[in-house]
Write a structure and sequence with these properties.
The chain is mainly β. It contains 2 helices and 10 strands, in the order H-E-H-E-E-E-E-E-E-E-E-E. It has helices at about 5-15, 45-50, and strands at about 25-40, 50, 55-65, 70-85, 90-110, 115-140, 140-145, 155-165, 170-175, 200-215. It has an 8-stranded antiparallel beta barrel. Strand 4 and strand 5 form a beta hairpin. The radius of gyration is 19 Å and the shape is elongated. The two termini are about 25 Å apart.
């Protein structure tokens, strides 16, 4: 999924004339962009040194449910690819976790300036694991299905800030897991082993840049 068509549609939406009557109507739209994620380790700092960010696409659909001119609820359905990668002296590979994410966001917009408004938002997010795999490059090339080694549900949170109008928005988000993504003490799929005697828990962390266009 390319980020560029969504950004193009968002810019096109800016050129359309505003319609104040739309402010109190439920809206529907599409959104897409990029996600930069990592797996964070609690209890073993050596894992945080070894595990690095990876960038992948994300996108989906959203609803806007207005409560007032400046306050509205925005449920979403997104497909997001998360995970991490590693490149040490002996090991190189990446973990790919694909989720169907269901954020329920509450948005608050400030005063309008030059046809746009800055908004802040946040809320819970439920992630349903669709696929989990690992691609190892060193010491030997392999692709490993590790779906059974990761939890099916990832309960998380999202916070962010954005800019936009009634027809389009551009958001920067940060979110993470509340619950651990695996019950095991080491990431399955060829990741670096934990430090001796360490007891780590693993959670997703991710930045997202999303452009959205309201279709009606």
């Amino acid at each position: 999924m390319s980020v560029h068509p969504f950004i193009f549609l968002a810019v096109a939406g800016l050129l359309l004339p505003p319609a104040r009557a739309e402010a109190q109507r439920i809206g529907f739209g599409i959104t897409g962009g990029a996600i930069r994620s990592e797996v964070n380790s609690r209890g073993d700092e050596s894992q945080n040194v070894a595990l690095e960010h990876r960038s992948q696409p994300t996108g989906g659909l959203f609803l806007t449910v207005p409560v007032s001119e400046s306050f509205w609820i925005q449920p979403e359905v997104l497909v997001s690819v998360k995970g991490t990668r590693w490149n040490t002296a002996d090991l190189e590979g990446a973990l790919r976790l694909t989720y169907l994410e269901l954020p329920a966001l509450v948005r608050f917009a400030g005063p309008r300036a030059a046809r746009v408004r800055i908004h802040v938002f946040g809320g819970p997010s439920l992630g349903l694991l669709l696929n989990a795999s690992s691609v190892v490059s060193r010491p030997a090339s392999a692709r490993i299905d590790v779906e059974e080694r990761y939890r099916d549900v990832d309960l998380g949170w999202v916070l962010g800030v954005g800019i936009g109008d009634r027809r389009w928005h551009l958001d920067l988000r940060y979110g993470g897991s509340i619950t651990r993504i695996t019950d095991e003490p080491q990431l399955a799929g060829g990741a670096p082993p934990p430090a001796v005697g360490a007891s780590a828990t693993f959670r997703n962390r991710a930045f997202q840049l999303l452009a959205g266009v309201r279709l009606f």
